[in-house]
Amino acid sequence: MHLYxxxxxxxxxxxxxxxxxxxxxxxxxxxxxxxxxxxxxxDILWQDCAPLGKVAGxxxxxxxxxxxxxxxxxxxxxxxxxxxxxFDLPLCELQDGHPALADLWPRAQAEALAExxxxxxxxTTARCAIIERALLARLRTREPxxxxxxxxxxxxxxxxxxxxxxxxxxxxxLGVSRQHLALLFRERVGLPAKTFAMVCRFRRAHAALRHRxxxxxxxxxxxxxxxxxxxxxxxxxxxxxxxxxxxxVPAPP
Length: 253
Description:
Blueprint: E1 2-7, E2 17-25, E3 32-36, E4 43-47, E5 50-56, E6 63-67, E7 71-78, H1 107-118, H2 124-140, H3 146-160, H4 167-174, H5 178-189, H6 193-210, H7 218-224, H8 230-241
Antiparallel strand pairs: 1-2, 2-7, 3-6, 4-5, 4-7
């Protein structure tokens, strides 16, 4: 059994946080296996088996998680390009990694937060409120950075186009060099700009396939989602999902 729920963030965090979420994995004999696909987001996860918390950096490939014992997780998912306000390092250093939160925040701060979350039995609402207060306190110590507005504009453009955008054209439209935009993406988003766009395109195709069944016009799906052809589509799914596109098409009723 694997129960997953999402919750909207505090209004003061809405510009930075996509959601808070919980997961309760309860193996029923066999381990619970989960394939986590790249989503262009950074998360912080706190688990009852690892109370100090860990950070899930931006993903350039799928991650396979196996749970053999019951695990309760409460987490925050940042919007693309918004997590940099909460960490004092270039986010590219977190790519495909899961470092301990205590290695990225002051250890005393991470330990105090873990104590508040897990020292006693709390409701999900109470745990989410504790996390939001910690994030708000950290956000208040940050001064706005001029680069943030440029990053958010670039991210919005890539997402609006479903990843079908040339990075050179994007940089030109924003009035910066390709090299400068690439540097900002690595430091403040966590992935190279090209990879970020590729993940956007993959997510668009993945979402499209979830609502189809039966025979699929693969050439049409590929073109509609910004791929050159079906082979290009298949290559993207192998890269970001370790699977074929066909495996994500629901079985007909």
